[in-house]
């Protein structure tokens, strides 16, 4: 009986060893499959505008386990992206095959950059520095006239004047939102804002009624984009919706002034519009105290030049469905 018990005990030990070896073999095979078959060999990147595919790969697949498609898929279904990759809003991993993944990225929107100390400081819609490099990225407007302190990536733009900081971020954000892309955004010594395009300039003035100015500029600009001149929106408000377009070379020269700008040019007062399209009766001709003919447009702007110098290339009054440019005064008058 004792011998039978010993034989059973040996048999159990033998079975236990076989089971343990089987489990180890199974684990080894599983490891070979997981780390061999699921080793990433091909990567696609979609959704990237500012960063290259290689830059995205380096950012997303930075740790030692990231070459495994199972691990990578799991990681970015749980990771806090703001901590892991502050340059991106969202990352999604799609496994196309055990050895192939597609990385979907949603980048934070870069709305502008400021040149300082030989580098370009890019920032997002909240004024957070996203990048500090010598690279010039397409589709991002440059901002001039703004001095920066010590720059730290992921820190706020180091602008000492808080009002100026707000103006820089707000304007860049509004331009991006309305798909308006100037070559340069300039702030002068009094923080007045100007937009420089290839052929013309838009004067925005101080940070007042900025949202109304930019939303209306979106409607106006397509009609004036090919015209040389300056659009003055400094006094533009929701109630006094007039912008003055002055013909002439509105391009910025190396001295920072607009070419063709004259100190003697007078500013026109804003006024309310009252008609959707220009008609001859939209303005009126009268005589001043000296007996000279003067023209007053529908917004109250006055000129003694009785020639229609603000017409389109086709010789017609410029309209856009929202308003028109008065052919005598150059005032943009909304419906």
Please describe what this structure looks like.
The structure is a single chain. The protein is of the alpha+beta class and 335 residues long. The chain folds into 3 domains: 42-107, Ubiquitin-like (UB roll) (Roll); 110-247, Rossmann fold; 284-334, no CATH class. The protein is built from 6 helices and 17 strands. The protein has helices at residues 2-37, 53-60, 69-78, 81-84, 162-177, 210-224, and strands spanning 42-46, 88-97, 100-107, 110-116, 119-124, 129-133, 142-144, 184-187, 193-196, 200-205, 229-232, 242-247, 284-287, 293-296, 302-303, 323-325, 331-334. An 11-stranded mixed β-sheet has the order 6-5-4-7-8-9-10-11-12-17-16. Strands 1-3-2 form a 3-stranded mixed β-sheet. A 3-stranded antiparallel β-sheet has the order 13-14-15, with no helix packed on it. The relative contact order is 0.07. InterPro entries: Cell_div_FtsQ/DivIB_C, FtsQ_DivIB, POTRA_FtsQ_type. Residues 247-307 are annotated as: Disordered.
Major β-sheet strand ordering = 6-5-4-7-8-9-10-11-12-17-16
Into which percentage range does the β-strand content fall?
25-35%
Number of domains: 3
Could you give the order of the helices and strands?
Answer: HEHHHEEEEEEHEEEHEEEEEEE
Q: What's the CATH architecture name of the largest domain?
A: 3-Layer(aba) Sandwich
Helix content class = 25-40%
Number of strands: 17
Average pLDDT over all residues: 80
Q: What is the terminal-to-terminal distance?
A: 110 Å
Q: What is the number of helical segments per DSSP (H or I, 4+ residues)? A: 6
What is the CA-atom radius of gyration, in angstroms? 33 Å
The CATH topology of the largest domain turns out to be: Rossmann fold
3D shape: elongated
Helix/strand/pairing category: alpha+beta
Q: Could you describe the largest sheet, including whether it forms a barrel? A: 11 strands, mixed
CATH class of the largest domain: Alpha Beta
**Oligomerization category of the chains in this entry:** single chain
- Please mark out the parts with pLDDT under 50 across 5 or more consecutive residues, or reply none: 259-276
């Amino acid at each position: 009986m004792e011998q039978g018990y010993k034989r059973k005990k040996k048999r159990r030990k033998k079975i236990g060893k076989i089971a343990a070896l089987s489990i180890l073999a199974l684990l080894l095979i599983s490891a070979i499959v997981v780390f061999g078959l699921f080793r990433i060999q091909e990567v696609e990147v979609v959704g990237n505008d500012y960063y290259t595919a290689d830059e995205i790969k380096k950012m997303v697949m930075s740790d030692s386990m990231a070459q495994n498609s199972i691990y990578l898929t799991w990681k970015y279904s749980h990771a806090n992206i703001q901590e892991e990759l502050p340059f991106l809003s969202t990352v999604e991993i799609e496994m196309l095959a055990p050895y192939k993944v597609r990385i979907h990225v949603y980048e934070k929107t870069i709305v502008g950059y400021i040149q300082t100390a030989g580098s370009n400081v890019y920032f997002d819609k909240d004024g957070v520095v996203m990048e500090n490099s010598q690279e010039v990225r397409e589709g991002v407007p440059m901002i001039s006239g703004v001095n920066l302190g010590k720059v730290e990536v992921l820190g706020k733009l180091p602008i000492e004047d808080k009002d100026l900081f707000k103006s820089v971020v707000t304007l860049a954000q509004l331009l991006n939102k309305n798909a308006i892309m100037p070559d340069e955004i300039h702030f002068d010594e009094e923080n007045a804002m100007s937009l420089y395009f290839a052929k013309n300039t838009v004067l925005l003035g101080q940070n007042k009624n900025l949202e109304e100015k930019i939303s209306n500029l979106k409607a106006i600009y397509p009609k004036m984009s090919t015209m040389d001149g300056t659009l003055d929106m400094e006094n533009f408000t929701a109630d006094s919706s007039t912008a003055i377009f002055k013909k002439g070379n509105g391009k910025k020269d190396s001295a920072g002034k607009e070419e063709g700008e004259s100190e003697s040019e007078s500013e026109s007062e804003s006024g309310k519009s009252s008609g959707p399209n220009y008609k001859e009766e939209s303005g009126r001709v009268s005589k001043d105290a000296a007996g000279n003919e003067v023209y007053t447009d529908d917004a109250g702007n006055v000129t003694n030049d009785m020639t229609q110098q603000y017409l389109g290339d086709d010789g017609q009054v410029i309209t856009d469905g929202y308003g028109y440019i008065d052919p005598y005064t150059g005032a943009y008058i909304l419906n």
